[in-house]
Structure formats: structure tokens, C-alpha cells
Specification:
Distance between the termini: 27 Å
Helix content: 25-40%
Number of domains: 1
Number of strands: 6
Number of helices: 9
CATH architecture: 2-Layer Sandwich
CATH superfamily: Nucleosome assembly protein
Largest sheet: 4 strands, antiparallel
Order of helices and strands: HHHHHEEEEEEHHHH
Strand order of the largest sheet: 1-2-3-4
Structural class: alpha+beta
Shape: flat
Radius of gyration: 27 Å
CATH topology: Arylsulfatase, C-terminal domain
């Protein structure tokens, strides 16, 4: 029996009507729980809006350090891990040291201003585990111009959030900011009211990227055929026929599949799969990468997973030993 063939042990439809009525009463009580949860998440969103102001202030200070507009001194640079490094410079397993080994150190010296390519290294380190390997090799030079990622919450209702990717002037596109907007369904889905599990993303919208001539990394030209001159002995150069094809790119993130306005209209399975990944990535950028950027820069955010033992695998190993 496959997962899709699962049937409950009890055939509810065969129950006496009086019992069916009691089940209906339980479902109505369940819906009261859903309404209470909606109220709970509404209050949580009010707190999110309140604290987002503090996060924005902290992140503005972070940008000052990264950009070189503010040079931290004194108490600002006192952190236990740094003191430990000073006491034991030969400690090779220190997480921060290991994380920085992955950074292109050629970009950094004693006269460096701020932390160049900070967000590029943040996203590069998070690419496999958080961004679902969306960043391709040809995206990397473009992302070196990324100077900040910010978050804007919708208010007063929890109807969505917007990710803003801020870029320095660059040779690739003219947009100073690329945006990705996510829409949330704050309440229950009318078609499945008892399946409510908090606000969920159900739609997203990107933005138009104004690529400069010949710089669109989401497309590439391929040679279709070569035409030679029909005149024998002609020294005319051969004509190469090319066509433009789609290229996988991180910047596809800004042109997601559209969700049909009509709920009865079905989406293609491929588009549905793309959106599922997109929703996960967008939520992870909001909840992980933006608030914990420095830990992705050093690699510490990724190394934390090593501290947790896979309980299921260890149990399997014990069973094998017993056998």
C-alpha cells in the first residue's frame, strides 16, 4: 500500500448517524481552535512589527560596519571568541578561523575599507543548504555588487513581506534594488478550514531586472549553424547563426511562476514544484540569512548542524549491532 492509498482504520461514513453528529460537533469545536490560533498569530504579528523596528536599527548599524562608514572600536569589538583566538592562535579547529579560510582573502588587507563582498560570501556559503543551490558560477560576479538585504513586513495585517536586495552600481543591470514580494494567507483557507497551521505563503511576485546590453546572466547564446558564402573563392567571413536560450540562474528568483487568480485553474506540476522551493528559499532568507548574516559569512551557521546527532540513523546502527 502506498502513502496515497492510506485509509483510516475506522470507516467514519459507516458510523450511526448519532455518532456522525458528534463527530461534526468535534469538527465545529476544532474550528474554534482555528479561530483562536488566528487571533494568536495576529498578536504575534503585532509583536513582529514592534520588534522589526529594533531589528532594522541593528541592521542599519551592521550595514555601517560592512560598508566602511563606521569603524567599530573599544567595546564594539569585544567578543569572547576573538579573545580566545588571541590566546591560542594555533587553534586550528576554531569555527570562525575555519569559516574565514573559505573567503577569498585576496580581497582583504589592513587597508581594506569595511568588509568587501560580505553579502556575496553570505549567500555563497548558504547556497547549498539554504538557497537550494540556486547560485550558479555565472551569478557570482553579479552578486559581488550586493551591498545589503533588507526586510519589510506588511502592516497592519500579516498579509506578507518583501525582501529587498540592494546593489551598488554595476555593469550588469541598472536597478539599485531588486525586490521579491511574498503574499501570506493570514487566516484559514475557506476550502480547508480545519487544516490551518498558521499564516502561509501562497503567492509571490518578483520584479523586472533592467539588464544592460549583453549582460543578462539568465540567458546565453548558442550557435545553431554556420553559413558559408555561396560564391566559390569568396573571402567573405562565415556567418554564425545563434539563438538565445534560458540559463539557470539565481536571478530567476525574481521571475517566479504566476499563481492563477482563479482558484479553480490548475497550475502545471513543474510550476508548482518551482514555487514550493521558492517559498522555502524566501522564508529562509527572511528567517535565517538576514538576521544571522555574519554567521553565514564565517560559516558558523552551517557548522552548527554537526553538533546534532541523527537519532534515527544511530538507532538503525544499534539495531544492526544487535542483529
Amino acid at each position: 500500500m502506498t502513502d496515497g492509498d492510506y485509509q483510516p482504520a475506522l470507516d467514519v461514513s459507516a458510523l450511526p448517524q448519532v455518532v456522525k453528529n458528534r463527530v461534526k460537533a468535534l469538527k465545529k469545536l476544532q474550528f474554534e481552535t482555528v479561530k483562536a490560533e488566528e487571533e494568536y498569530y495576529s498578536k504575534v504579528h503585532a509583536l513582529d512589527l514592534e520588534y522589526q523596528k529594533q531589528y532594522d536599527e541593528i541592521n542599519a548599524k551592521r550595514l555601517g560596519v560592512i560598508s566602511g562608514k563606521h569603524e567599530p572600536t573599544g567595546e564594539e569589538i569585544e567578543w569572547p571568541s576573538d579573545e580566545e583566538e588571541d590566546k591560542d592562535e594555533e587553534k586550528t579547529d576554531d569555527k570562525i578561523s575555519e569559516g574565514l579560510k573559505k573567503v577569498a582573502l585576496a580581497d582583504y588587507n589592513d587597508s581594506t575599507t569595511g568588509i568587501p563582498k560580505f553579502w556575496y560570501h553570505v549567500l555563497k556559503n548558504a547556497n547549498d543548504e539554504v538557497l537550494m543551490s540556486m547560485i550558479e558560477t555565472h551569478d557570482e560576479a553579479v552578486l559581488e555588487s550586493l551591498v545589503d538585504i533588507t526586510l519589510e513586513l506588511k502592516s497592519p495585517e500579516n498579509t506578507g513581506f518583501t525582501l529587498k536586495f540592494h546593489f551598488a552600481e554595476n555593469e550588469w543591470f541598472s536597478n539599485p534594488v531588486l525586490t521579491k514580494e511574498y503574499e501570506l494567507r493570514p487566516g484559514h483557507d475557506p476550502e480547508s478550514p480545519l487544516e490551518y497551521d498558521g499564516p502561509e505563503i501562497f503567492k509571490c511576485k518578483g520584479c523586472k531586472i533592467d539588464w544592460k546590453e549583453g549582460k543578462d546572466v539568465t540567458k546565453r547564446k548558442v550557435e545553431v549553424k554556420t553559413l558559408s558564402s555561396r560564391n566559390k573563392g569568396s573571402k567573405s567571413p562565415k556567418k554564425v547563426i545563434t539563438k538565445e536560450v534560458e540559463e539557470n540562474s539565481f536571478f530567476d528568483f525574481f521571475s517566479p511562476p504566476e499563481v492563477p487568480e482563479d482558484p479553480s485553474e490548475e497550475m502545471e506540476d513543474e510550476d508548482r514544484g518551482v514555487l514550493a522551493v521558492d517559498f522555502d528559499v524566501g522564508f529562509s532568507i527572511k528567517e535565517k540569512i538576514i538576521p544571522r548574516a555574519v554567521l553565514y559569512f564565517t560559516g558558523e551557521a552551517l557548522e552548527e548542524g554537526d553538533d546534532y546527532e541523527d537519532v534515527s540513523s544511530s538507532e538503525d546502527e544499534e539495531d544492526e549491532d544487535e542483529d
